[in-house]
Write a structure and sequence with these properties.
The chain is α/β, with parallel strands linked by helices. It is 44% helix and 16% strand.
Length: 259
């Protein structure tokens, strides 16, 4: 069973998540079973319809692993649908200014904090069988995680104002888009990008907020944790590719080679 207070741990310790980019409940369940603290279903760059997304969330949760959905755009419909089919939170890309951050909060919180429509026939409300509906609304608002991306030069410049917006749990520094925004479209590991990411993480931490980011290696994971990130996400694909290449290189013999 998923700990209802799992996101509170972000205040005191790093949690390690993993992107799931394939439209497959089985792969999402497999990722959860590895032992990550949460799965992050990538519906920004992945190709998932709503039914598949719901089943991916369900598969992760069946393995006692919370599941966050990264939505395609900062639009209320995407946020509300993800939460209505039971995701443990949403992650919203390209939040560059305060009005955009406030739109995320409005769409993801029930009144009076936000404008999320109330429905009790949904999966998280046990399809209408939740006994105390007022308590359900309070707990749903408390338990979900809301993350926004800080991944452009403009967002970094406006960071202090973004950090003043109430109702956001995680500020996710996206190194890939930030690298493009800084003029390094093919090098998210450029020293200037690394420095910008780490400094932004530190600014978020110093304001008492939770910083997150993506890492492609264990070494980089330790670095961003040292910088103050507590919401650290990787992806399985490069690790799978690396492992496959290592296996093939170790086993295959050159054509005509000794037997």
């Amino acid at each position: 069973m998923i700990d209802r207070h799992w996101k509170d741990r972000l205040q005191t310790e790093p949690l390690l998540g993993c992107f799931v980019t394939f439209a497959s409940p089985a792969i999402c369940e497999f990722t959860a079973e590895i032992g990550f603290d949460f799965t992050l279903i990538d519906n920004e760059h992945g190709l998932m319809n709503d039914e598949t997304l719901e089943n991916m969330v369900r598969a992760s949760q069946a393995a006692d692993c919370p599941s966050i959905v990264r939505i395609p755009y900062n639009q209320p419909d995407y946020i509300r649908r993800a939460l209505d089919f039971g995701a443990n939170g949403v992650q919203v890309p390209l939040v560059n200014e305060v009005p955009a951050a406030r739109r995320v909060v409005a769409a993801s919180h029930f009144p009076p904090v936000g404008e999320r429509g109330v429905a009790f026939q949904t999966r998280p409300a046990r399809y209408g069988m939740v006994a105390d509906k007022a308590a359900y609304l309070r707990e749903a608002d408390r338990a979900k995680l809301v993350a926004v991306h800080v991944e452009t030069v403009e967002a970094v410049e406006r960071l202090d104002a973004l950090l003043d917006v109430e109702g956001i749990d995680v500020y996710f520094v996206g190194p890939g888009d930030l690298a493009v925004s800084m003029g390094y479209p093919h090098d998210l590991n450029h020293p200037d990008v690394i420095t910008a990411v780490d400094k932004t993480i530190g600014r978020i931490r110093d304001r008492g907020k939770v910083a997150g980011t993506y890492v492609g290696s264990a070494d980089r994971g330790r670095q961003v944790i040292d910088a103050g990130a507590h919401y650290v996400v990787t992806i399985l694909t490069p690790h799978m590719v690396r492992g496959g290449h290592e296996f093939l290189g170790a086993v295959r013999r050159p054509v005509g080679g000794a037997r």
